[in-house]
Amino acid sequence: MTGGAGFLGSHLCERLLNEGNEVICLDNYFTGQKQNVVHLLKNPYFELIRHDVTMPFFIEVHEIYNLACPASPIHYQYNPIKTVKTSVMGAINMLGLAKRIRAKILQASTSEVYGDPQIHPQPESYWGYVNPIGIRACYDEGKRAAETLFINYHLQNNVRIKIVRIFNTYGPRMHPNDGRVVSNFIVQALQGRDITIYGNGSQTRSFCYVDDMIDGMIRMMNTGEDFTGPVNIGNPNEFSIRELARKDIKLTDSKSKIITAPLPPDDPTQRQPNIELAGKELHWEPKIQLEDGLKKTIEFFRTII
Ligand code: NAD
Ligand code: UDP
């Protein structure tokens, strides 16, 4: 598991260990932290290794989950060149490893490959609308190049690949300073600070609870050899950012006020997955809807703030 000490990676490590697997977690702790996996260290089938995926790594494993990459805009824009290197060189290093040891490899791709989508909701067949020189490009184009590498290692070298396009996912273990909208709003609401909507809040996202996402990713890894993806995994219930802010205020019983701040350039105006393919190939659909997922996430943040 690369990026195993991050938000999604730590949940995946835990779930795979609970299912009786041995898990080796690689992370450079850029946005992840040991705290996320410290409870797993007592399990003798878990190993934690500090490693940066831009450097090669040699090991014997059956499956590789490639999650290493900062996911929050403020973190992936902090050092954009490093973000591209992590996506592209990380993919090359992990695909090279998968080729040598004949491992199956899953790529955590993203709905950001669709950019600011002109087709709504987004099916996997849509090629996207990405600004290649904008502030999100280091992440979007890095992830697109990683998909290109994955498909070509498959076609050229028969590497067994699985590509999942993850739509906005939230839940416990998001970092309070992660910068993504769900954690920002909950932390602001719990602390009674102003809730910062970027732009007018009419932009939409479709939020998936972490347990549903982990279930989808593991199902994808377990599909037959012929199915490579890409497959969208996400919750198709779409909300405006303003609606999300109101829900957080209600669920936390907060006195916070909503304020607006400038909308960052290239911020996608809408995003909603078409999940027909996941239904057909993975027999998967999300089970946890936004209010229930937010309640669990709010409980987590109450314990750490
Ligand atoms: P996260 O930032 O919590 O986790 C990323 C992990 O990768 C962190 O532990 C970080 O330290 C590690 N990492 C970063 N650069 C590294 C490097 N060079 N070498 C080794 N480790 C490195 O984010 P997350 O939400 O858990 O996202 C995990 C993956 O899923 C990412 O690849 C992200 O692009 C993808 N994804 C997530 C979402 C989401 O909504 N959570 C949406 C789309 C895609
Ligand atoms: N957003 C916001 N306030 C915040 C953080 C984010 O209004 O404090 C907005 C952001 O502009 C975007 C949406 O919420 O329109 C989702 O942002 P996030 O960074 O979570 O993910 P992404 O834009 O990558 O989907």
User: Number of folding domains?
Assistant: 1
Order of helices and strands: HEEEHHEHEEHEEEHEEHEHH
Tally of helical runs: 9
Shape: globular
List strands and helices in order, with pairings.
Blueprint: H1 7-18, E1 23-27, E2 46-50, E3 63-66, H2 73-76, H3 80-101, E4 104-110, H4 137-157, E5 161-166, E6 169-170, H5 181-190, E7 195-198, E8 204-206, E9 208-209, H6 210-221, E10 231-233, E11 238-240, H7 241-252, E12 258-261, H8 276-282, H9 290-304
Parallel strand pairs: 1-2, 3-4, 4-5, 5-10, 6-9, 7-12
Antiparallel strand pairs: 8-11
Helix pairs in contact: 1-6, 3-4, 5-7, 5-9, 7-9
The structure holds nicotinamide-adenine-dinucleotide (NAD) and uridine-5'-diphosphate.
Uridine-5'-diphosphate is lined by residues 72-73, 168, 180-181, 184, 196-198, 203, 205, 241, 264, 267.
Q: What brief labels describe this structure?
A:
single chain; 305 residues; alpha/beta; Rossmann fold; 4-stranded parallel beta sheet; two-stranded parallel ribbon; binds nicotinamide-adenine-dinucleotide; binds uridine-5'-diphosphate
Task: Walk me through the structure.
With 305 residues, the protein is an alpha/beta fold. It has a single domain (7-304), classed as NAD(P)-binding Rossmann-like Domain (Rossmann fold). It has 9 helices and 12 strands. Strands 3-4-5-10 form a 4-stranded parallel sheet, sandwiched between helices. A two-stranded parallel ribbon has the order 1-2. A two-stranded parallel sheet has the order 6-9. The site of uridine-5'-diphosphate has 14 residues, from helix 5 and strand 7. The site of uridine-5'-diphosphate (UDP) has 14 residues, from helix 5 and strand 7.
